Amino acid sequence: MATHAPIADAVQEAAPRRYWLEVLHDWVTTVDHKKIGLMYIGYALIFMLIGGFQALLMRIQLAVPNNTFVSPQVYNRLFTMHGTTMVFFVGMPILFGFGNYLVPLMIGARDMAFPRLNAFSFWVSAFAGILLYFSYLGGSGLYGAGTAPDVSWFAYAPLTARVFSPGHSTDYWTLAVFLSGIGSIGTAVNIVATAVCMRCPGMKLTRMPLLVWLYTVMSGLVFVAVSPLTAAQIMLLLDRYLGSHFFDTQAGGSAILWIHFFWIFGHPEVYVLVLPAFAFANEIIPVFSRKAIFGYPAMVAASVGIGFISLSVWAHHMFTVGMTSGANTFFTLSTMAVSVPTGIKIFNWLATMWGGKIHFTTSMKFAVGFLFQFLIAGLTGIMLAVSPFDWQVHNTYFVIAHFHYVLVGSILFMIFSAFYYWYPKMTGRMLSEKLGTVHFWLFLIGFHVTFDTMHFPGLLGMPRHIYTYQVDRGWGTLNMIVSSGAIFQAIAILVFVYNMVNSYFRGRMAGPDPWDAWTLEWAVPSPPPHYNFAVTPVVESRRPLWDLKHPDDPDSQYE
Amino acid sequence: MPVASAASLLATWDSTQTSMFSPQATPAHLILGLSRLMLAVTGGIFIVVAGLLTYVCVRYRHRKSGPNAIQEPQQIYGSTQIELSWTVIPILIVVMLFLATARIIFATQDAPKPANALDVTVIGHQFWWEYRYPKLGIITANELHIPVSDPKHPTPTYLTITSADTDHSFWVPRLAGKVDAIPNRINSMWIDPQQAGLYLGQCNQYCGTQHALMLLRVYADTPEQFTAWVKHEQQPAVADPSAAEGRQIFQHNACISCHSVGGSAATGRFGPDLTHFASRSTLASGSVPLTSANVRAFVNNPGYFKPGVLMPPMHLNPHDLDAVTAYLMTLK
If we measure between CA atoms, which residue out of B216, B211, B213 comes closest to residue B200? Predict the structure, then answer.
């Protein structure tokens, strides 16, 4: 596909072979945005394997009714750790990792605005994850056997009060989420400052790549959403150790207060995770359709719109806590309103592909999978916004299926797409397309077997967070199908991991611009040198490399 | 396989006792009606958009050969009219769906309470349900009895829902949507089952170790059955002389700190009321049938059926265990 000559020659000075301690020292002390980005990604991938393994254990337990594969105590810890891990220690870090790596490169900058803050944020987040898992050893203190938290990932009060959650397992959860929040806010500050202050000459905000726009909106949401969560963790610690009564219902505190705090974080958090997935789609779909993104201003407006609307929808997680009919009506409307800018995005992606020449690389296959699954996730989202329907299916497997359609079917698919697209930039070598195709089809089949089927037990009355169920409920067959899909997904992940490792050593050399793409990261060698750009680039349009490759018909004419 | 599983799904769809698709009370009927409209609207959108996506992927895929295989396609940057059309049409759909939803929200939540409605207070506990009938002077556990409501002369039941410890949620899908039981807060809902029978459900908000077996059983009784049940429940416990030894052991152990037996020395409130324990059909909040053998096994080791249950094993010797079981089985 690379029909044009590379823009810059891939000349990397051959580094002398170093002692492993030197390499380690280099990575631990680095403030380079690319190395920090890679560490974020690597760290998240390790946690993804752990969280995925927990999901497998849960699916074995639920495959048949009255199963005794794990005890209720172990099961409750599994779903708490799975949820907490996947949101705070997989989703956030992997997306921050790509952001760290790509934002400076795409705006022609040398590094992030605050390189040391960047390193600090990464290490705080990394240790938060280790702290969470240390609870397996230290959860009950020195006196008893270790336990992990078992309060579920939204840790509703007053289950987290000391009377219902003795020992220290909840403290590990609280502190880990608190620390991860500090790290997230630090990186968000950095991304906003970088996007606002570090753009190369000529890159007006209206020429900024959509990926950078979306990361900026996502970072803005992190400020507003993660701060209340972090504050609530401190309040919970005060309740547990210093005798305050914010959430202590036995002393007049309010359980609803925690629910509000949690979801005023928790719902924007969904957009914190999904906006970067949109960001990847905005770069990848145009390149493999060989067309400019359709409706750039509408895409920016829709992203900012989603950001604002997402701050007003949190109580749609609370339709069953006994709000007034007026409040339920308001949150029904605000939640349905999100579907308008989201719809605009889907239609713009379709219009970008319309009239193009779509190259179905592995990356594009995952992106099309994302479009299809995100459509369904959005539609089940509208269903859940219909609060009377939510009164029936809230906290059932219908909701679990819906948000896994978002988190796995949409976000994880787009993360895979991003790996196939940017791995060559990060390592200098191509991922195997053959293994990629196997990975894609296995994962697609596994995903649909598991998560399409999972909607139905919810409609038939199966709540979440239950370690087993009675035979006479009639959910057995469906759960067996759901669990069998997990096997395909697990094999697909193994293929992916093998592909990543094998291609690192044996993959085809990528060169600077393997996809014949248009944004600035493809103007530097793969992997890019420490300093990124030997000469600060100057841009005149949204697609600087298109202008270079088509001097007769540059974008700058049309914008 | 998909066809077979879809067929078996349709077969179980209605027969499942906890399916929202076989409603038997007004709130559940209202919700199902709205859900059908919602499924039609979202299904329509899905067909249109997924159809477009499929068309685009097939029609505009890159072909290796052809007249313009190497040439880039024409670059199009956007169109305000098109953007407007796919902004305005979704807004109209949203407004329509919103209005239909708002109507059902108000019809369910703000329905006026008739004077002849039955009041029941539902209190969630780790991991069982307490039911109180304040006007009838009845306290019972785990099996809720309410009268059938004839649509011509409705006699709905209004539930006041709260919790004694952590959050729970009261959900019987064939009767109504769920409402959470939250400590230090009073919620309410109403149900009017139109057919006599047993309706199942379970706690729907994670509440601790044994959340999974915090099951719900709602008996909709005919008016005669309900009157008889009320009369029976209002009696003090049966004092069968043949079970005197078991009663003594029961009263001399810690049992009475948590359990009440009406008309006896047992006045505990932490566990389920046992006054008419043996007239229930299940044990351990619906986990197992109430039989002598199950009661004995439960008293011997409560965690046997329900790991994580808060009742401790009482370490009774086999003889005492038999005596207590015999006593409990007389509490008709």
Answer: B216
Asked if residue B227 belongs to a domain, the reply is no
pLDDT along chain A (559 residues), means of 10: 43 64 92 97 96 97 95 95 97 96 96 96 96 87 72 94 90 96 96 96 95 97 94 96 94 94 95 97 97 95 95 96 96 96 96 95 97 97 96 97 97 98 97 97 98 96 95 92 96 97 95 95 95 94 93 85
Question: Considering only CB atoms, which chain A residues are within 8 Å of B83?
Answer: 295, 298, 344, 348
| Contacts with B146 (C-beta within 8 Å, 6 or more apart), sequence order | B118, B120, B157, B191, B193, B218, B219, B220, B221, B226
Same domain flag for B216 and B272: no
Note whether B182 and B298 are same-domain residues.
no
> Which residues of A fall within a CB distance of 8 Å from B180?
320-322
Q: Which residue of B has its CA nearest to A334?
A: B98
Q: What percent of chain B has pLDDT over 70?
A: 94
Q: What CA–CA distance (Å, rounded) separates B39 from B171?
A: 22
At A384, which CATH number? 1.20.210.10
Cα–Cα distance, A508 to A513 (Å, whole number): 13
A157 touches A226 (CB < 8 A): no
Total domains present in chain A:
1
Among A366, A375, A182, residue whose Cα is nearest residue A284: A366
Whether B100 is in a domain gets the answer yes
B173 and B24 in a common domain: yes
Mean pLDDT (whole number) for B202-221: 96
